[in-house]
Every structure is written in structure tokens, then in C-alpha cells.
Amino acid sequence: MTAAGPRVALVGCGILRAEIDALIARNGWIVETRLLGAALHDDPPALARALEAALGGAPRPCVLVGYGACSPGLDALVARRGAIRLAGDNCVAQLLGEGRYHDALADGAYFLLERWARDWPRAMPRTFGPKLSVLREIFHVDRRYLLALETPCSSDFHAAAERAARDADLPLRWARAPLEPLEAALGDALARARATTDLREVAR
Predict the structure, then answer these.
(1) Region 82-93 average pLDDT
(2) Which end of the chain has fewer CB atoms at under 10 Å, N or C?
(3) For position 59, what pLDDT does the model report?
(4) CA distances (Å), 181 to each of 12, 53, 80, 133, 163, in order?
(5) Which one-letter DSSP state was computed for residue 5?
(6) Mean of pLDDT values over 109-123
(7) pLDDT tens by residue, 96-114
(8) Residue-range domain boundaries for the chain
């Protein structure tokens, strides 16, 4: 999408801020980004309110939502606002691609992006309480290891990831996450947005 294309807003999760910014720059996409705090995932009602506000104030004719099914009623909100949601269950699925994401999930992975790893000491006690025994019990129900994902935009977060693995009492593995799957998801959504806009223009 070039500067001559329609104005589009991207409302998304700030967990992938660096990656989204890099792809926008690489492709020359003309979009307005409104990326919300990743900590909102810990509070689904607050996430729903923040998305409602962001979508309500975003420019038309079309809005892209860089979220998966992260909170109850999200798809209904997207439809009500006339927005387009990126394909994928969540941000990690959009980053890795559905196949790779579901394979790792079925293998018992708990995904760890850089910001999640760095926020771990604050986020986990708030979500599960201060006792490591409780956190470990929850993680051990169906997770076998932590999978730390390094993208081309990541800095060195090995120490933060290692702390998370110790807290969860799970092995730590590492994997590269190239940007091409997310780039494809964004490109597809932008193409759908432009097609929708063009149809509206023709109908006038």
C-alpha cells in the first residue's frame, strides 16, 4: 500500500511493536499505528475497553486489529466496528504462522517473547500470586518447556528468559522467529482493507 492508497489504522498489541514498525518501514505501508500495552492481556475487561476506545477513535474507512481471540467478544467488537482482524489465534500465531505455532503448542511449549520475559517478575505475581509453588503447579499442568522466541528485532533477553524458566521450573528452549509470517498476515489484511475501501468508493 503506497501513499496514494486509503488511510488505514492498525490497532494492535504492543508486544510486537518493534516487529510491526520494522515491517511497516520495510514495505512502505501507510498506516497509523495504535499499539496498546501488552499488560492488558492480564485484564480482559480492561483490554476490551481499551480496544473499544481505540477502534472508536481510529480513522476510517478501515481499521486492522492485530489481535487474536484474546478476550471474550473480541470478534463481535471487530465486526461491530467494521474492522478487519489479522488471521491467527493470537500474536504468537501471527508471528510464527499457524502451523508452527500449533505444532509447538501441542508439544507443550509456553511461548516467551522479549517483553513478556522482561515483564515476568511483575506480571506473574500479579496474575498468579506471590508463591512460586502455585505458579509452577499451574505451568506443570500442560506445559513442558518455555520457548523463547528471538525475532530480528530482539535484543539480548537471555537473562530474563532464564529467570522465567527457573521460576516456572521448566526447561528453556530458544527458537528464531523470522518476520515473514507476520509480514504475510499484515499484507493480507491490508489488501482486504484496501479492497473493502475500493468497493465503498465505487458504491458512492
Answers:
(1) 86
(2) C
(3) 63
(4) 16, 28, 27, 36, 29
(5) S
(6) 94
(7) 999 999 999 999 999 999 9
(8) 8-93+179-203, 96-176
Q: How confident is the model at residue 62 (pLDDT cuts 50, 70, 90)?
A: low
Residue 88's region, left for phi above 0, alpha for psi from -120 to 50, else beta, is left
Q: Judge: domain 8-93+179-203, CATH 3.40.50.
A: yes
| β-bridge partners, 146 | 110, 172
Q: In what order do the strands lie in the sheet with 109-112?
A: 109-112, 145-150, 172-176
At which residue does the C-alpha cell 475487561 appear? 45
Q: Which long-range contacts (CB under 8 A, 24 or more apart) does 56-62 make?
A: 56/81, 58/9, 58/11, 58/32, 58/34, 59/7, 59/8, 59/9, 59/32, 60/7, 61/6, 61/7, 61/196, 61/197, 61/200, 62/6, 62/8, 62/9, 62/193, 62/194, 62/196, 62/197
